[in-house]
Design brief:
Blueprint: H1 4-12, H2 16-20, H3 24-48, H4 55-65, H5 67-90, H6 100-115, H7 120-125, H8 127-138, E1 145-160, E2 178-182, E3 185-186, E4 190-191, E5 197-198, E6 202-208, E7 216-221, E8 227-228, E9 231-232, E10 235-236, E11 238-239, E12 247-252, E13 267-283, H9 285-318, H10 328-346, H11 349-360, H12 364-388, H13 392-400, H14 405-439, H15 447-456, H16 460-488
Parallel strand pairs: 1-3
Antiparallel strand pairs: 1-13, 2-6, 4-5, 6-12, 7-8, 7-11, 7-13, 9-10
Length: about 500
């Protein structure tokens, strides 16, 4: 009967058997965990069948939508229920106690998998589509270098639907691009009654004096100087000159609706536009902007750390229990300061950045304010804990000599504080630099502001340059901070 009662109670309500056996803490944890599992399970099943009502219709629809999850949830919940009943009896008698909380973690993991909508198959199937932009981020250096360019343009005029009109003779200039067409007149493509294209005249375009091997784009200018790139077979027309800078290709005159405002002889023009490099490589705008923003980011982290150290040192003494335990007034100050620090530290720097942007506007100053506020709270807590952990022996020795409070702090507390203070300060600098890259996402300046703009514009190569600079900078700062820490600690 002694063992049956907790089992029955656990089967009625998991955890009640442990309370009956006076395993209060374990029983409460089991009750809380099991009720959380039941609540989350009901919520997820309801979402899987949100348009249905009634226990069995909802369960049936949820099962049809995600049978694996429902089977997992049912089996493991029943197993947990039985295991809890066994644990209520065996907990105090076995050295190797049944792993109830391991099973609870497994169930929470399954719930988390479903709540988080993890889809490994989707990730694998869509990986080829994601690889193209991802490869640009991983290796973006083509966008880091550019070249000065110049455009070579050559063109030839054509008369539309008037073979009797004589165009001026073509003049060939040595060293200049030259383009001619055969014939020098033709009819544009048109649309029939079924809106099907009726092809126009086919012409041969020849050119010389262009840069060998460089692709040239074909452009068409109508009679009122509107320009566009003609296409054939769904592809834009382009040419690649041979080793002598010459080319020859055949094209069909494109479709073009001639506006009523076009009067007289209609002369269109075909042009070949080729862009070629002039001079050596030069840094591209994304590289220059990234370097400038990265420097800004580093100094944002540095300034926020300096301000944070200056402001947090006096605060840390007010938040140290061993310093502020002299009277009820100092104890009240201690609890007040600790509470304020906890509140400030619990608010993420991104939230502080949003507040700072409203306060002082967009830019690095807003980021510095946000990081400084958070740094004061974080360093104040770390410094105060460092003060609380100092050896009381030197303090007692200094006080035995008749030293006052200021002298005790100067000669007994501060010398012990320097190593942990240096360590905490360097660590905070590292955090602030890394946070500076994120603060820019909400307008707080730094490279994050630039990075989010590149991502919104789908310029993944430029975004990749920013990501690489962030990674390299953080790695370098980690090495520098480790060297500083090694020398001071």
């Amino acid at each position: 009967m002694k063992n049956i009662a907790p089992i029955i109670l656990s089967l009625i309500f998991p955890g009640a058997g442990h309370l009956y056996r006076k395993h209060i803490q374990r029983g409460l944890l089991i009750i809380l965990s099991f009720t959380s599992i039941i609540g989350l399970s009901i919520s997820r099943i309801s979402l899987l069948a949100h348009r249905y009502e009634g226990f069995f219709p909802v369960l049936k629809k949820a099962f049809s939508n995600n049978p694996g999850f429902i089977i997992f949830l049912f089996l493991f919940t029943v197993l947990l229920w039985i295991w809890i009943a066994i644990d209520s009896v065996k907990y105090s008698t076995l050295k190797k106690r049944p792993g109830v909380f391991v099973l609870i973690l497994v169930i929470f993991f399954g719930l988390g998998w479903q709540i988080s909508e993890i889809d490994v198959v989707k990730a694998a199937v869509q990986m080829p589509d994601a690889w193209k932009p991802l490869s640009k981020v991983l290796w973006p250096w083509k966008a880091a270098i550019t070249y000065k360019t110049e455009e070579l343009t050559g063109g030839a005029d054509l008369v539309i639907d008037d073979p009797d009109y004589v165009l001026p003779a073509l003049n060939r200039t040595e060293g200049k691009p030259f383009v001619e067409t055969d014939p020098r007149w033709g009819s544009l493509s048109t649309l029939d009654k079924n809106n099907e294209i009726v092809k126009g005249t086919s012409i041969t375009v020849r050119g010389s004096g262009f840069t060998p091997g460089e692709v040239g784009e074909v452009w068409w200018l109508d009679s009122i100087s509107n320009e566009f790139r003609p296409r054939e077979g769904g592809q834009y027309l382009s040419v690649t000159p041979d080793s002598e800078g010459k080319f020859e290709f055949t094209m069909t005159l494109p479709y073009r609706l001639i506006p009523p405002s076009a009067q007289g002889v209609q002369i269109n023009r075909v042009e070949i536009r080729q862009v070629r490099r002039v001079g050596g490589p030069i840094p591209a705008d994304p590289l220059k902007l990234t370097i400038a923003r990265m420097v800004e980011t580093i100094f944002m982290g540095m300034m926020a750390t300096i301000f944070g150290i200056i402001l947090s040192i006096p605060v840390s003494f007010l938040a140290a229990r061993n310093i502020m335990s002299g009277s009820w007034i100092t104890v009240a100050v201690y609890y007040f300061v600790r509470t304020v620090l906890n509140i400030i530290r619990s608010i993420e720097p991104l939230i502080w950045a949003l507040i700072a942007v409203v306060w002082v506007g967009l830019g690095p100053f807003a980021g510095i304010l946000a990081l400084t506020i958070h740094s004061v709270a974080a360093l104040g807590k770390l410094y105060s804990e460092g003060i609380e952990s100092i050896d009381p022996g030197p303090i007692e020795a200094i006080k035995a000599t008749g030293a006052d409070s200021i002298q005790t702090i100067m000669f007994a507390i501060i010398p012990q504080m320097i190593p942990p203070f240096v360590s905490f300060s360097i660590y905070r600098w590292d955090i602030n630099v890394r946070m500076s890259t994120i603060i820019g996402l909400v307008g707080g300046g730094g490279i994050g502001f630039l990075l989010v703009q590149y991502i919104r514009l789908l310029d993944y190569q430029a975004a990749g340059i920013a990501v690489w600079f962030i990674a390299v900078t953080v790695a370098i700062l980690d090495y520098v901070s480790a060297e500083i820490r090694r020398k001071f600690i």
